[in-house]
Amino acid sequence: MTDKPMVRFDNVSKRYGALTVLDGLSLDIARGEKVSIIGPSGSGKTTVLRMLMTLETINDGVIWVEGEPLTHMEKGGKLVPANLAHIRRVRAKIGMVFQSFNLFPHMSAMANCIEAPMTVLGMKRADAEARAAELLDMVGLSEKKDHYPSQLSGGQQQRVAIARALAMRPKVMLFDEVTSALDPELVGEVLQVIRQIGREHDLTMLMVTHQMGFAKEFSDRVCFFYQGKICEQGPPGELFGAPKNERTRQFLRAVLEAG
Amino acid sequence: MWDWSFTFEILPTLASAAIITVEATLIGFVIAALLGLVLALVRIAIPWTAWPISVLVELIRSTPLLIQIFFLYFVFPKFGVVLDAFTAGVIAIGLHYAAYCSEVYRAGFDNIPRGQWEASIALNLPQWATFRDIIIPQVIPPIVPALGNYLVALFKETPLLSAIAVLELMQTAKIIGSDTFRYTEPMTLVGLFFLVMSLVSAAIIRVLERLLNRRTSR
Amino acid sequence: MGIRTLVGMLVAALAVIGLLATQTSYSLFLPGLLEGAVLTIEIAILGSLLAVVMGVLAALARLYGPAPVRWLATVYVEIFRGTSALVQLFWLFFVLPQFGILMDAFSVAVLALGLNVGAYGSEVVRGAILAVAPGQWEASIALNMSRAQMLRRIILPQAFIAMIPPWGNLFIELLKSTALVSLITLTDLAFKAQQMNQSTLKTVPIFTLVLLIYLVMSLVITIGMRFLEQRASAGLSRGRAA
């Protein structure tokens, strides 16, 4: 039993030229914790996920995953920027589902799910297919396993994307506004899958979302981001029920009015 | 005016010269298509090469192919490499069209949505697998018509090889003309050959385009 | 590439030529090459003029001509696009005399290149005219303009701007094609290069200079066309037609 955080952002900053997107972010995420990140656009919330998935570089600070630095490596007792081999080794623990699904259009659902396990993990085709079949079944798409993305609805594509990410057995799953691009009637099926994997696997989950109802019911903790910093965070009951910060209140009011 | 018996006399000679023309076209195009892909890949995989490669491509596209053929033909011996005219000429044509093909590939790569690259990173795929399994299979089908057009363009420029005395169609026609003082028949036959091949290829490319579009959509 | 980059490249190329000119191994070729370049430019300019005329005529013929004229224009375009400039050049040079038509090499060159690029140009003109927004045609018809008035006052001026970049590319293709005239004994830049190369075998200096000179001419055309485009679209709203 370790109380080491699963993910630690240690004073992390991200700048684009003169624009500071994330300002000295310090955030710990415990093993198995489900954290929702909410906030207005431009608040830096998507950047948090993208930096953790190494899709963006960081300007200051260090990101740690399971006690090991992700963005840096230890050399002679000091931390230096990590090389690609180190980054690849550590980021293997992290998986991501995208707002625009990003399925490989020239591959079937099954092929999408076995590509990485075979190429990266060196699994044999039969084993990879067995695991993929299991996961596709879990997300409710076993009859569609030979279908191509263009033959699937948005909700179905996103569920395949989730299965694809899970096939790599990550310890941390990142969800970047995964229902924002879906027609309203398809949102529910994707949220249901997320609920399911949250229950059954001991996954640490980090979700950027606009689905306030879901965030309230599913998360252990909610972080409200504003202009590159965490403005307020806490258990959903507290943050949604009795927000302490005026900006949080303003945001929640605007969101509830719109929804 | 038009001597039919003469026409039939020279047909066999022209036919075997046509084979040389076709050989030059195919070898030249293989060089162009492969080297073009290599150039495009290097630009992506090794970012600092992007600028030098684009300068090289601009240089090749802004200067006449004829000059490039002469240059290679005469420059190789200076470095101790002795190549016959056919080889030097085909290499020059291949290099020239590799520059054009690399731009076609570049546009193809640019059209791949960034999300494909990001999904590959998220799945921790290594670079080589990302290119081989995800990116290149999506790049190739849409650019086949454009590559096909360059194949036809390359084919139509093979008569330039006559300038370094390669015995392809044009050179053969000129020799027949200077030997017999009858230029009308050989020159017109050569023209007709290229015209017919060009029209046929254009039709084939249109069919290919339609087939490819059907495969990628629903 | 922005105009600044192009001008930068032009200045760089001229600077390199200037630098090389200070080396005797290069400078003794420069006068002869420049003499050849003058002929190249003459052929390029005259050929381009013919190409524009043929391009516009053929496009209008294919769009609005009576059936036989349309057919003729289509045959012209297909023949000159389906065969290469060299084939056309040689055919005109070797075959016309056999029919008693005697032209000097210079005229044959201008004719062949002009007709060749004109065929491609007609597609550019046709495309640009068809791309002018339908609303413009409809407004002109509503104002009871004749076909000729419509074209002259409303359609062609708008099509003109869209045509400039593709024509720029065609002019550069024509410039590059002028090298072919060296093969019918015209003493252009390419001919001079080959001649000097045969007699001195100093391939690298000669061809380096030649490539640079073509590059300079090519850039001048590109920059010129950009300026033309800017001036022509000055009065219009931002952005090219559709």
Automatic annotation (TrEMBL), chain A:
Subcellular locations according to the entry: Cell membrane
ABC transporter domain sequence ranges: 7-252
Alphabetical keyword list: Amino-acid transport, ATP-binding, Cell membrane, Membrane, Nucleotide-binding, Transport
InterPro entries xrefs: AAA+_ATPase, ABC_ATPase_HisP-typ, ABC_transporter-like_ATP-bd, ABC_transporter-like_CS, Ectoine_EhuA, MetN_ABC_transporter-like, P-loop_NTPase
Keyword hit for RNA-binding: no
Chief location category: membrane
Membrane association type: Peripheral membrane protein
PROSITE patterns xrefs: ABC_TRANSPORTER_1, ABC_TRANSPORTER_2
GO function terms (MF aspect): ATP binding
Family, similarity comment: Belongs to the ABC transporter superfamily.
PANTHER family per the UniProt record, alphabetical: AMINO ACID IMPORT ATP-BINDING PROTEIN, GLUTAMATE_ASPARTATE IMPORT ATP-BINDING PROTEIN GLTL
Name of this chain's protein: Ectoine/hydroxyectoine ABC transporter ATP-binding protein EhuA
Species classification: Bacteria, Pseudomonadati, Pseudomonadota, Alphaproteobacteria, Hyphomicrobiales
UniProtKB/TrEMBL annotation, chain C:
A Pfam cross-reference name: BPD_transp_1
InterPro entries for this protein: AA_ABC_transptr_permease_3TM, ArtM/GltK/GlnP/TcyL/YhdX-like, Ectoine_EhuC, MetI-like, MetI-like_sf
Recorded topology in the membrane: Multi-pass membrane protein
Subcellular locations according to the entry: Cell inner membrane; Cell membrane
Membrane-crossing segments per the record: 37-61, 99-120, 206-228
All residue ranges annotated as the ABC transmembrane type-1 domain in the record: 37-225
UniProt keywords, alphabetically: Amino-acid transport, Cell membrane, Membrane, Transmembrane, Transmembrane helix, Transport
Domain of life: Bacteria
Record carries keyword Transmembrane: yes
Protein's UniProt keywords contain Transmembrane helix: yes
Principal subcellular localisation of the protein: membrane
Family (UniProt): Belongs to the binding-protein-dependent transport system permease family. HisMQ subfamily.
Protein name: Ectoine/hydroxyectoine ABC transporter permease subunit EhuC
Phylogenetic classification of the source organism: Bacteria, Pseudomonadati, Pseudomonadota, Alphaproteobacteria, Hyphomicrobiales
Primary gene name: ehuC
